[in-house]
TrEMBL record:
Domain Amine oxidase: 9-152
Protein name as annotated: Amine oxidase domain-containing protein
Domain of life: Bacteria
GO molecular function, one term: oxidoreductase activity
UniProt xrefs under InterPro entries: Amino_oxidase, FAD/NAD-bd_sf
UniProt cross-references to Gene3D superfamilies, sorted A to Z: protoporphyrinogen ix oxidase, domain 3, Protoporphyrinogen oxidase, mitochondrial, domain 2
Coiled-coil intervals: none
Xref: Pfam families: Amino_oxidase
């Protein structure tokens, strides 16, 4: 923000809590500082709840607020698209209103396009998704999601890191 506002610009931060930072904070765990907060655990896989139960921490788990994440694009807020896998659309309709008509057409045509895969390769998520679904899909759906989950850009996160299930498959044949 400072770079955008310039040295003389005023930046005002509003936070409804008793301190800045929302639910993100640093706690001391085992004598070491640890960042905790919003993305501390992903609970859709069974391993994390099982680990919490094993450690006697299941009762300390807190549910999310249920507020749907939003993306600011084209001078307006859009709900983070549903019907995607890590922001990658499963259908053109999942990104309707977020991307332009040319990108919607590209998404619709994607299943019919040939796909080549170099065994053992690990392209950046942005490279693969832009090729298949267009730059707007990366900028308006994939990157906002990956930034939140991995605190990094789709341009620097490899496909194998973002989608570990493809790691085994990517060494031999293209993903189906």
């Amino acid at each position: 923000m400072r770079a955008a506002a310039g040295a003389d610009g005023t930046i005002t931060v509003f936070d409804p809590g008793d301190r800045l930072g929302g639910i993100l904070r640093t706690e001391v765990v085992g004598g070491q500082p640890m960042d905790v907060g919003a993305e501390a655990f992903v609970l859709r896989r069974p391993e994390v709840p099982a680990l919490l139960a094993e450690l006697g921490l299941a009762e300390r788990q807190r549910a999310t607020t249920g507020v749907r994440p939003m993306i600011y694009s084209g001078q307006q807020l859009h709900a983070l698209p549903s019907g995607t896998m890590m922001g990658i659309p499963t259908s053109a309709s999942s990104l309707a209103g977020l991307v332009d008509d040319a990108t919607i057409a590209r998404i619709e045509a994607e299943p019919g396009r040939p796909f080549s895969w170099r065994p053992g390769s690990d392209p950046a998520v942005a490279e693969l998704v832009a090729d298949r679904f267009g730059e707007q899909t990366v900028a308006r759906s994939v990157d906002p999601l990956l930034c939140g989950v991995y605190a990094g850009s789709a341009a620097t996160i490899g496909l194998r890191a973002a989608a570990p299930a493809w790691r085994r498959r990517s060494t031999a044949a293209p993903p189906a």
